[in-house]
Design goal:
This protein has helices at about 15-25, 40-50, 65-75, 100-130, 150-170, 190-195, 200-205, 215-225, and strands at about 5-10, 30-35, 55, 80-85, 135, 175-180, 240. By secondary structure, the protein is an alpha/beta fold. Strands 3-2-1-4-5-6-7 form a seven-stranded parallel β-sheet, with helices on both faces. It has one domain: 3-Layer(aba) Sandwich (Rossmann fold).
């Protein structure tokens, strides 16, 4: 590996939006470490990404594993320039049926792990005086109310608040923090949800001015832009990539 390349970590990079982001990074000469829980899925993804990538198996809900992973990557490559906090879990369940444990499980992965991983990466970037870039992945669920996803909605609203707070504190040190809020994107996970609920799919498309589901590559392109020098004066933003869904009627 050419150590003068930028190095990125993409969590949840084995499939869907995370894989699309990793693909864009690798294609544009950013060495990319994809992180996830499923080792075989990660290995298959790395084979497709090619020699500009590597995989690291880690359950991010295990907070003790996060500093170990960051130290390993730094010891091997010397630097971490870009972090994409994409990994997350969801649960569709009526509000009154969600247990305390289920609510906390989602917050652990979607919020606490994002905080812990960001903290460890930023510590390194401050120490090395790296002009870093962090990109958080939020959701349209934080923009307006969607039924039966209360824990997920709470977690993504927290992510957007954290993005702004981190940007205010860290941007003076040259570390930019931004957020992408995807709309209805055609991934395996969303396909299952929408195909099993035709009424919900029709409603989603009906209020999307562009009239079709987005592609994971659309989120990948947005992440590449925010990670690039073209966005060097952009920090603290929440960028909807949703075909206009958030402003549709």
């Amino acid at each position: 590996m050419n150590t003068t390349k930028k190095l990125a970590i993409v969590t949840g990079g084995g499939s869907g939006i995370g894989f699309a982001i990793a693909t864009q990074f690798v294609q544009h000469n950013i060495y990319t470490v994809i992180v996830g829980r499923d080792e075989q899925k990660l290995r298959n993804a790395c084979e497709q990404l090619g020699p500009g990538s590597e995989c690291y198996t880690c359950d991010l809900s295990d907070l003790n594993a996060i500093p170990v992973m960051v130290d390993m990557i730094i010891s091997r490559y010397g630097h971490i320039d870009i972090l994409v906090n994409n990994a997350g879990i969801n649960m569709k369940k009526s509000f009154t049926e969600v247990t305390d444990e289920e609510f906390q499980d989602i917050l652990q992965t979607n919020v606490t792990a994002v905080f812990a991983l960001s903290r460890e990466v930023v510590k390194h970037q401050l120490e090395k005086k790296i002009s870093g870039c962090l990109i958080n992945i939020s959701s349209m669920a934080s923009q307006y109310g969607i039924p039966k996803v209360i824990a997920y909605t709470a977690s993504k609203s927290a992510i957007e608040g954290m993005t702004k707070a981190m940007a205010t504190e860290l941007s003076p040190y040259g570390i930019r923090i931004n957020c992408i809020a995807p709309g209805f994107i055609a991934t395996d996970m969303s396909a299952k949800a929408l195909e099993s609920d035709p009424e919900r799919k029709a409603k989603a498309l009906g209020r999307t001015p562009l009239g079709y589901l987005g592609r994971p590559a659309d989120i990948g392109a947005a992440a590449l832009f925010l990670a690039s020098d073209a966005a060097q004066y952009i920090t603290g933003v929440v960028l909807p990539v949703d075909g206009g869904n958030a402003i549709g009627f």
